[in-house]
Amino acid sequence: KTLKVLVYRKCSTCLKALKWLEVNQVVFDERPIKEEHPSYEELKAWYEMSGLPLKKFFNTSGLVYKSLNLKDKLPSMTEEMSEDEQLKLLATDGMLVKRPLVIGDDFVLTGFKEKEWEEKING
């Protein structure tokens, strides 16, 4: 099965990640995270499969994140908002989602950490 990679091409980290995939000859389907943002259903499935804390799915350095003042809200928000509500919030705007977002057969990676990618993707 081909990896699914959600990226924003104006993001330098995403470009680095795409380059890494190329160099490592990884076959993948690219999807623009802004134009084709993940749905609630997708996010829910990926979150459940990832085993990661939900806050790892938030693009904490993004403008949308900052404009919604989520930095101050997220810690208390994660207590006040159910996971379901957080997933719905993430589904409203692809720019809220941490990128690149990689979905494999049995793993999900948020952000680009070369070592982690080596282990999971090249295994």
In short:
This protein is α+β, with helices and mostly antiparallel strands and 123 residues long.
Can you give keywords for this protein?
123 residues, alpha+beta, four-stranded mixed beta sheet, 6 helices, 46% helix, 13% strand, globular
Strand order of the largest sheet: 2-1-3-4
Largest sheet: 4 strands, mixed
What's the mean pLDDT score?
A: 92
**What is the rounded distance between the termini?**
15 Å
What is the β-strand count? 4
Structural class of the helices, strands and pairings? alpha+beta
Choose one word for the global shape: globular
Beta-strand share of residues: 5-15%
User: Uncertain runs with pLDDT below 50, 5 residues or more?
Assistant: none
What share of residues is helical?
40-55%
Task: Describe this structure as you would to a colleague.
The chain has 123 residues and is α+β, with helices and mostly antiparallel strands. Helices cover 46% and strands 13% of the residues. The chain has six helices and four strands, in the order βαβααααββα. The relative contact order is 0.23.
Note the topology.
Blueprint: E1 3-7, H1 12-23, E2 28-32, H2 40-50, H3 63-67, H4 70-80, H5 83-90, E3 101-103, E4 108-110, H6 114-122
Parallel strand pairs: 1-2
Antiparallel strand pairs: 1-3, 3-4
